[in-house]
Amino acid sequence: MTASLLAPILTGLLLVWRLALDYIPIGRLNDLSRKSARSRRRDFTIHYIPLALMFLLSLSSYRAASAVALVLALAYAAVQIINWWLPYFKGGSDSQKARWEGAYGRTHRILPRIRDHSVPDTSHLITGILTVVVFITLGSQLFASPAVKETVGQTQDNKSPAGTAAPTATPLVETAFTQAGQKPDQLLISAIQGAKKSIDIAINAINHEEIVKAIVQARINGVEIRIITDRSESTNTLQAEKLKTLLNAGIPVKENTRKGMMNLKMAVFDDHTGATGSFNYTENASTANDELLVLIHNAETVAEWKKQFEAMWADTDNYKDLQIGVVQKK
Predict the structure, then answer these.
(1) What span, in angstroms and rounded, lies between the C-alpha atoms of 207 and 246?
(2) Which helix H or strand E contains 293, and what residues bound it?
């Protein structure tokens, strides 16, 4: 059983124990005949309020709450040390002894007497032991608790079933450099394979065999796909072949007809993940060039990219459908 479960259980047990001592006759463990209204008000301040706060704070999974609970437990233990245990080990005044005997003289005691010192009764011994156990458990809970709420991509409590590793959270941004051996083509293919509903791609050049296969397979799996590419690149023999493969798979492709290059390297996956960077979807970009692919997992950012893509796709003056047989090879 973890400290996060033990802490509220033991703190609640200590609170119930104190309430029972003050209100339920438990043989010689307590003597309710000596309880006055004044002593009950004192008990409310000294015992019930701090213990109730400790219990409520121990229910939290955050470090700040555990720290406050631990401080309260320390203060509660200090009150016991000053009032019960220092008079037992070091002795006290005659008035202290008289008050002690008047309140607890008829209750059970198990501790040996030290000269003429006041001896805490068994109920105080049990309370002291429970307090130490609660203090240790709250300390364990403090170091096991998260300092703040988890950030984007993390689970609420980051717990896993026994015997399994905690799941790895997806970072907000993922990057892959070609010349660092980080395989941007594989990172892109993973994003394509992870899409469930839609993929919109605006890419200057595309001739990578595995990337094209992944796009076609996504279309077979029911993902809606649209592609915009550059007119000058579409006349390249290798790219022309790959574009025909995409068109034959039922994927609509457009090319720019206006002056200037369609030089974007952008993709949107399911409206929550975007790909960008210098990386073209080509064999050279995956092996020979200095290239960077960036994946961004942020719906607000990707929504702006989506708006730009929609505007380009709807612009029939500057972007025309690429038809099978129209692609000309050099």
Answers:
(1) 11
(2) strand 292-297
Angle between helices 184-194 and 209-220 (to 10 degrees): 10
pLDDT digits (tens, 9 = 90+) for 259-309: 899 999 999 999 999 999 999 999 999 999 999 999 999 999 999 999 999
What span, in angstroms and rounded, lies between the C-alpha atoms of 18 and 35? 13
Spell out the SS3 assignment of 76-135: HHHHHHHHHHHHHHCCCCHHHHHHHHHHHCCCCCCCCCCCCCCCCCHHHHHHHHHHHHHH
What's the CA gap between 307 and 253, in Å, rounded?
A: 18
- pLDDT band of residue 325 (cuts 50, 70, 90) is low
Beta-carbon-side half-sphere exposure of residue 51 (alpha carbons within 13 Å): 23
Whole-model pTM? Answer: 0.51
Distance from C-alpha of 54 to C-alpha of 74, rounded to nearest angstrom: 11
Instruction: Name residue 139's amino acid.
Output: G
Nearest to 48 by CA among 77, 27, 18: 18
228 burial via Cβ count (<10 Å: 0-12, 13-18, 19+): buried
Question: Residue 159 — pLDDT band, cuts 50, 70, 90?
Answer: very low
Q: How far is CA 220 from CA 249, 251, 253, in A?
A: 8, 10, 16
Of the candidates 301, 295, 303, 305, which has an alpha carbon nearest to the alpha carbon of residue 173? Answer: 295
Cβ-based neighbours of 329, under 8 Å, separated by 6 or more? 235, 236, 237, 240
Instruction: Determine the Cα–Cα distance for residues 92 and 298; give it in Å rounded to an integer.
Output: 67
Cα–Cα distance, 193 to 199 (Å, whole number): 10
